[in-house]
Amino acid sequence: MAATREERAEQATEVKVKHFTAEERVAKGKAARAEVPRASHSVLEPTDRDPVALLEEQAATRVPELVPIRYGRMLVSPFTFYRGAAKIMAHDLAAVPRSGLGAQLCGDAHLSNFGGFASAERSLVFDLNDFDEALPGPFEWDVKRLATSFEICARDRGFDDDVRQSAVLTVMRSYREAMRGFAAMGDLEVWYARLDVASIYEQLRQSADKKQAKNVARAEAKARTKDSLKALSRLTHEVDGELRIVSDPPLVVPIDELAEDMPVAEIRAEITTLFRKYRSSLQHDRRKLLEGYRIVDLARKVVGVGSVGTRAWILLMLGRDDGDPLFLQVKEAEASVLEAHLGRSKFKNHGQRVVEGQRLMQSASDIFLGWIRATRTFDGATRDYYVRQLWDWKVSVDLDAVLPRGLVLYAEACGWTLARAHARSGDRIAMGAYLGKGDTFDRAVAEFAASYADVNERDYEALADAVRAGRIQATEGL
Question: Which residues contact 265 (CB under 8 A, 6 or more apart)?
C-alpha cells in the first residue's frame, strides 16, 4: 500500500535516533539545571496582552451562535475561566524560562482533564483524557498548568492557605518523585506502567482511609454504568419506528435540523463516505469490528468549556439490534494553542496530531480512537476531526464537592500520572536529574502557580467587564 501524504511527510522529517548512556543523560539534566536553575521557574514575566482579544481571536473560527455559551461557562468562576483559557496561558508561558527538556505535552493539563475510563481489557484506569492542544514542548509547561489548576481550584473551594499549599506541593512532589522513579526503570516497565482505580482503592483500604476508599468504590461502580447503553436511554427516542437523537437546541441539534435545505439522502451519503475515511485510520481488527455497526443518526453537541464553539458531533450506530448501540464523538481539531509559540505540528491533520499525542501519553487509549479530514462541509471549509467513544465508563472527580483530604489525594494521582505520560516520550533520566531530590523545583512552581492564579482572576474580571460593556455576549445557564 502506498504511503499517505502524512506518512511521507513524517518519514521525510525522521532523523537517526541517537542513543546515550544513562550517565550522559544524567549529565544532560544537570547541565540544563545550570543553564536554567530550578528556582527560576517561579518567574512570571508580565506580558502586554488583552486576554479578551486572545479569546476573540480563538473564537473567530468557531460556530458563532455557540461562542456566547463558551463565555457564559467561563464566567461561572475563575476556575471555569481557567479551563477555557489555555490559549492565554500558552501566550504567558512563552515569556518564562524554559528548561530545554522536551516531552509530548497534553497542552491543557489542568486537573479537570484527568479521570477514569475503560481500558480495552475492561479495567477502569485513571489517566489524562483531553488532548486537543497536544504538541511536543518543554515538560514544565504541562506541570505549571497542572499546579496552577490546583491553586485555583483550592481558592474556588474556599480552602485555607495550608490546604491550598498542601495540594499544590503534593502534585509537585508526586510528579518529581514519580519522574525520578521512572528514570530508574527499564523502558518497557515505564511503557506498561498505569494507575488503575482498583489499585487506588486498595491503597486507600490498606491505609485505613475508609471514607476515601468508599468514595472511590462508589465512583467505580457508577462509572461502569456510563456507557453507550446509558447514552441510548438519555439521548435518543423513537421516531417512526427508528431511533433518533433527541433535539435539545442549542446544546444538541440533530443533523437534519442543521441542514434543512439539503436532501436527507445526500446528507447520509456524505456521512457514510466520511465514516469510511475515518475507519481507514484504525488498525485492521478495529475496522472489522466497526463494520458490524450501521449509522443511524448524527447530531451536533456542545461539550466542555474550552471546546465550546468547535464543531463536535455525536454519532449513533447500532450493531446486532436496537439494544446494541455504539455512540462515537467526532470532535473538531484545530491548531494547538501551543503552535504559535513552539512551531507547527509535524502532522498535517490536526485530528492525527491529537490522536498521536493521546496514544503517546496515555497508558491505554480508546480502541476507536482515529481521525478524519472533511473537505465537504456546510460552510465549504475543510476541517480536521478526531473520533472516540462518547462514554466508555467515563468518570471524573466532583470538584465542586471535593474536600481538602480528597483534593490532596487527587493531587498525588495527577502528579504521578502526568510524570508517567511525560516519561513515555521525554528523556525521563535527564528530567529526573534536572528535578533532583530536593523540593527546589516544587516550591518554585508553587510560587508561580500562586502568582498566575492572581493573573487568572484579573483575566476573569476582564472578561466579565467585556460582557458588561457589550464588547462580547455571554449566555448563562447552558
Answer: none
